[in-house]
Amino acid sequence: MSTTANLAGSLGFTVADAVIAFQKASVFNTLIKMVPAQPGTLTARIPVYAALASSNVEQTEGDATLRTLTSAAIDCTVARNTVATSVTDSVLLGSGDNVYGNVGGILGNTLAAQFDNEVAALYADVSNTVGTAGASMALSFIFDAVEYLRTNNAPGEYFAVLHPKQIWGAKGLSAVVDSTDGTIVEDIVRTGYFQTIGGVHIFYSPEIEIDGDDDAQGLVFASEAFGAGYKDFGGGTFIDIEEGRDAVGNATNLVANGYWKAAELVDTWATVITSDVS
What we know:
By secondary structure, the protein is an alpha+beta fold. The protein has one domain: phage-related protein like fold, CATH 3.90.1690. The protein has helices at residues 3-25, 89-93, 99-120, 139-151, 164-167, 173-177, 183-191; strands at residues 33-36, 43-49, 71-77, 79-88, 129-131, 158-162, 196-197, 200-204, 215-222, 226-230, 239-246, 251-264, 270-276. The strands form three sheets. The chain has a six-stranded mixed sheet with strand order 5-13-9-6-8-7. The N and C termini lie far apart (55 Å). Mean pLDDT is 88; it is low at 1-9.
């Protein structure tokens, strides 16, 4: 069977492996609000609803007062994010591995890293910061973040996405909790990780920004603080792979595309958590 025919039969598996790899590798993908673009367009309109204060609730036997519920819409114009590589025939024919599947996984991981990088970079749009530049991580930073979100009525569960150095290492959370007693320390010893602190679900990503002073800019947020519009190829998938035969070069080009755009939705439902990671 020819190389071209092999590719035609394998491309579907390559796409599937890329999608699976993206879904496994991306941290922010499942933590923020994802909205597909309208059919026939590249624009996703993400609705944002303001909360009503407790003062809007009344005790009355008469007519209830109609309260104004305000809403806004954030329009995200979906962009193409792409990464390409080439597979030579000699590699394909001389390998017993699932070459296209492996390449698909690598491309999916790369797009996932870029997706997380784009969301992590939104820290620059967030107005509030907890923690201290030049200081090691402290549990109080997490609790200060929760206090800020609760004060601003941020809904739902809270998530922290931190740089790995903000969790592990001499200046990370692991060094802080190692000097205390309790289940957090037990989790660290048993699994090398802890899942929640102060009710905040803890995640990590190497895509979290580190500035020129070696301070990491992690994020603590409610899920609707950030969102992303995407082009839905079916089933919520926004990853696709195209192939192009380079017969002269005796190779096949694989181009992975991810169609999305991330944005901050509600500024007061997120906070930056700054700490030294030098």
